[in-house]
Amino acid sequence: MKILDLNEEEGRVSLSLKATTPGPWDGVEQKLAKGDVVEGTVKRLTDFGAFVEVLPGIDGLVHVSQISHKRIENPKEALTVGQEVTVKVLDVNADAERVSLSIKALEERPAQEEGQKEEKRAARPRRPKRQEKRDFELPETQTGFSMADLFGDIEL
């Protein structure tokens, strides 16, 4: 037992048995490390990701961008609550009680996707190269000048 509070005026002592038992985050660095591959259960889905229980009492976040190589708008498109998944640990922050996880880090990037990106790059028209710089002399007048005075001889 641990003494939480001692109030001599009222003659009361507050005790806690729970405070003597280690919490799930105590020593988590020895149980879970960056780069580990573990099994987990999807516990909760949000708009920004899925919380996966990787150890009893410890849930990690698989951000929506870490679920799949394909673009996913909402984790519900790929995962369901209660689903067993294999995840890679990206980061463990015991002080903040946060674990970052990834599913796509364990999957091979589809070769087809890379080819499509290259096709998109090749199909995009390129800008024409800039012509070398020219030196212009501005007319010395009090009334100003027009753009035609400066660039009238340039063909587009």
TrEMBL record:
PROSITE patterns: S1. InterPro entries: NA-bd_OB-fold, Ribos_protein_bS1-like, S1_domain. SMART domains: S1. GO terms for biological process: translation. GO terms for cellular component: ribonucleoprotein complex; ribosome. One of its GO terms (molecular function) is structural constituent of ribosome. SUPFAM superfamilies: Nucleic acid-binding proteins (SSF50249). It comes from the Bacteria. Pfam families: S1. Residues 106-122 have a biased composition (Basic and acidic residues). Residues 106-156 are annotated as: Disordered. Keywords: Repeat, Ribonucleoprotein, Ribosomal protein, RNA-binding. Residues 35-104 form the S1 motif domain. Belongs to the bacterial ribosomal protein bS1 family. PANTHER family: 30S RIBOSOMAL PROTEIN S1, SMALL RIBOSOMAL SUBUNIT PROTEIN BS1C. This is SSU ribosomal protein S1p.
